[in-house]
Amino acid sequence: MVPFSFQSEEMHLVGAAGSRGCAIYWPREQALLVADLHLEKASYYAKGGQMLPPYDSRETLERLAHAVRQTGARRVFALGDNFHDSEGTGRLDPHARGMLDALTRALDWVWIIGNHDPDLGAEAGGTRVAQIVVAGLVLRHKAEKATGLPELSGHYHPRLIVSARGRRIARPCAVRSDNRLILPAFGALTGGMDAADPAILSAMQPACAIDALVPATGRLIAYPLWRADA
After folding, report:
1. What distance in Å separates the CA atoms of residue 78 and residue 100, rounded to the nearest whole number?
2. How many CA atoms does the CB half-sphere of 140 hold within 13 Å?
3. Is the pLDDT of residue 101 over 70?
4. What are 116-175's pLDDT values in tens digits?
5. N or C end of the chain: smaller count of CB under 10 Å?
6. Cβ(112)–Cβ(124) under 8 Å?
7. Beta-bridge mates of residue 138
8. Sign of dihedral through CA atoms 174, 66, 191, 216?
9. How many CB atoms lie within 10 A of CB 148?
10. Is 142 exposed, middle or buried (0-12, 13-18, 19+ CB in 10 A)?
11. For residues 43 and 173, what is the distance between their CA atoms, to the nearest angstrom?
12. How many CB atoms are closer than 10 A to CB 174?
């Protein structure tokens, strides 16, 4: 776990450096925050004839359970696009269903609704909300400019993309500004958007500085993405 600060709150990026997404642990709230799980994405595409290995939900939930054990979290906030579509809960295989049921029963679990799963049903377990305010921070799926509170969100699947020694390197990252924090996608079958993409930079405004936060072998790299004109 790699610590950083957001709105004077200590947060931790949770997850190994590499191509997989990270979660955020909020110690004061004993809360694990994850975004864009996109559970049952493979089975969604299978319905249309595009066959993918049907194990993405298992992998995502196994990684999530490991993050819970690693942090000792007692609460989980899933920041939208939890399933790839609102019918995904009905396609979970028995193993994945058992894993999800165990997690939602053992923890104070809150599903924040996203654009992919607007009609997520009660069979998912936990509590479903459009957004929620926790200790003065609003948690929602997609960043909103017209808000008076600092916010944490997902939706954009940010990745830091850089070129080094002739190689293109892409790593999931969080994106932080003065009062907004966008989480990377956590799901096993989620792609990513360049953290410096104009859509992400626009979503972070107004801001004085915007950085990509990437864990790297026990330390945090804060990579500058944008700075306001002096």
Report:
1. 13
2. 16
3. yes
4. 999 998 999 999 999 999 999 999 999 998 768 999 999 999 999 988 777 888 899 999
5. C
6. no
7. 133, 151
8. positive
9. 7
10. middle
11. 27
12. 28
